[in-house]
Amino acid sequence: MKKLIIILFTHLLITSCATSPSTIIPQSFTTNSNSGMLVGTIAIENKKPIFNQYFFHYLGEGDKSISTNRMITIRPEQMTSMKFKPDFFDENKAVYYFSITEVQGKYKFTTLRLHENGGYVQSQGEIPMNITFHIEKGKVKYLGEIYFNYTNNAVRLFNKKERDIPKFKEKFPNLVIE
User: Fold this and answer.
1) pTM
2) What pLDDT, in 10s, does the model give residues 143-154?
3) SS (H, E, C) the chain
């Protein structure tokens, strides 16, 4: 019985932790690489999170359907109550860094998938997106801020280069961002 309680507590602790996409951003990037990198931020209204998980899906030129290989995930902290644990706050927004490393080509964010888990009741929703970007071989490019306003289910792209590039350079000093 004691082992079961320890296992359940450990599982609860692991699954209730916040997930930030910035934890997988590489500290450096080789310019002679066959791949390229895109960096940017995802901002969500800094109110109490409604959703347990946010999945930002993107497709490559020849892709037919979304997959977990091309997805950025954000999970708010859920230990006692849900709250955002972003890389930083900007006024009323919780802001997360992200990066995508892919081969050179054209890509597009197509779907924001939302998951709400209220225990016995679960729900999912999707919001269409149309944010195109190009990855160039050997380069690290800046996309902008993808802003999700769940009050009106809108996803928009904003140029926040003046705010984001200094913050990226502070946290990831070896990335040369164009």
Assistant:
1) 0.82
2) 999 999 888 888
3) CHHHHHHHHHHHHHHCCCECHHHHCCCECCCCCCEEEEEEEEEEECCCCCCCEEEEEEEECCCCCCCCCCEEEEECECCCCCECCCCEEECCEEEEEEEEEEECEEEEEEEEEEEEECCCCEEEEEEEEEEEEEECCCCEEEEEEEEEECCCCEEEEECCHHHHHHHHHHHCCECCEC
